[in-house]
Amino acid sequence: MSLLSDSGMPIEQISRLVGHSGTTATELVYRKQIRPEVEDGATAMDVIFPSAGA
Questions:
Q1: Which residues neighbour 42 within 8 Å (Cβ) at sequence distance 6 or greater?
Q2: 34, 24 in Cβ contact below 8 A?
Q3: Structure pTM?
Q4: What is the pLDDT of residues 29-52, one digit of tens each?
Q5: Pair 11, 27: CB distance under 8 Å
Q6: DSSP label at 31?
Q7: Who contacts 6 (Cβ-Cβ below 8 Å, separation ≥6)?
């Protein structure tokens, strides 16, 4: 499943593929693989909402 995550498949689709009822279990199992997605999201939010001091 990490290959699917690395190739850009959304966590929701991976979750359904492996038979999880939601994304929570999938996120726990594949936390290391989805970490870049979380970091990308945080970077995008920094661009959208820059800090007042920057």
A1: none
A2: no
A3: 0.53
A4: 776 666 666 677 777 888 888 875
A5: yes
A6: H
A7: 33
8 A C-beta contact, residue 34 and residue 7: no
Q: Is 17 part of a structural domain of the chain?
A: yes
3-state secondary structure of 2: helix
The domain in which residue 32 lies consists of 2-47
Q: How far is CA 26 from the centre of its chain?
A: 10
Q: Which of 7, 41, 12 is nearest to 26 (CA)?
A: 12
Residue type, 20: H
DSSP 8-state secondary structure symbol assigned to residue 30: T
Residue 21 belongs to a domain: yes
In whole angstroms, give the CA distance from residue 48 to residue 36.
18
Among 34, 39, 38, which residue's Cα sits nearest to residue 14? 34
